[in-house]
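step: validate -> pass
step: tokenize input -> pass
step: predict -> running
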Amino acid sequence: MQVAHFKGPPSGGPFIFMHSGSVIVLWMACVVVLQVLSPVPLAVAAGLCALAGWRFAPSRSLKLLRRVRFLVLAILVLFAGFTPGEALVPALPEFSPSREGLVLAAEHVGRLVAVVLCVALLLEGLPVSRLVGGLHALLRPLGWLGLPTERLAVRLMLVLRYVESAPAAAWRDWLEDDGINGNGADRIVIAREALAWGDLAALLLALGAAALWFGVTR
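step: predict -> pass
step: emit ->
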């Protein structure tokens, strides 16, 4: 595997005015917030994610959702069928799912679908070069501890690419040192971007909004 670097302004994707590292940080913040939302705000957030996925990344969103359909089915069966509570069909209490289980299943499915849609939007919005460059920029402080930040960034990118398109039988090939397909011919470009004042302002605004939200909801 060959890794090349280039410097320059961001190019490609809808996030051309933001540093790719800032985009990834905001994406991670959205994923974290989705895990702590109550059912009603979660339903609104999942609906907004669905609209954004349909508008900006329709084919990628459908592809990723198809890949987790069996996980969604397993969540529905496990939570709806094995959670104690009031039977949805009182005439058949032994075979009926519980109302409480259906609520829990819907909540967990909503979180999963919203996160999957967020992944689709991230992959659609950032070209591979910017995605790897953003991961590398975020992991760079770990280089002070002697960790291979460039290799970590590339491997994280390969995991995201594998989740989207790799065949199930080839997952071990993505973790090998000799390339994506094992032939060493793949070339990954890392874009190095300058952090602008707008990125810092966006991050500070996001942190302020998160602090305000947690302060109001506590």
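step: describe -> Residues 49 and 73 are 20 Å apart (CA to CA).
step: cleanup -> pass
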